């Protein structure tokens, strides 16, 4: 059995070329996200696609000044609807499952971007309240990840990863 090359090739890209993206790329990335698994197939995700500089700048501020967000041609904000998951799974659904589900959607976006010659970065360091205000999110919707997408200026080398023997515990800890 082997690890797919696309997983090996994915990198966090924080520097983008000033090159327009194909028009259909947003749709393709969201369709890939929607193919992610979700608890009870509830699909508690929502996506906001940003192209306007003004909104991207507001997200930069919410993300503690991470300027590369505004350099991307598009930015996808992946949001969770905790109430959707809570309706079936209660507190565990609202506090965990909706976040796991949106995380799977984020990974699908990043892998699809990589497979199409694009780069992105999973940005989780941001002030949730400021991001929610900038995006005018309904009160019950939580922003989970900011993903700037564009053509990479450079592709960084792979970074060291912990190996199998470092992360696996058999039967018990």
Label this structure with key terms.
single chain; 173 residues; alpha+beta; NADH Oxidase; 4-stranded antiparallel beta sheet; 14% strand
The H/E string reads: HHEHHEHEHEH
For the sheet with most strands, the description reads: 4 strands, antiparallel
Mean pLDDT: 97
CATH class: Alpha Beta
Number of H/I helices: 7
User: Radius of gyration in whole Å, from Cα?
Assistant: 17 Å
Strand order of the largest sheet: 1-2-4-3
Assembly context of the chains: single chain
Q: Report how far the terminal alpha carbons are from each other.
A: 26 Å
Q: Write down the overall geometry.
A: globular
CATH architecture: 3-Layer(aba) Sandwich
Element layout with pairings:
Elements: H1 5-9, H2 25-33, E1 45-50, H3 53-62, H4 68-71, E2 74-80, H5 82-115, E3 119-120, H6 128-135, E4 142-150, H7 164-167
Antiparallel strand pairs: 1-2, 2-4, 3-4
Helix pairs in contact: 2-5, 3-6
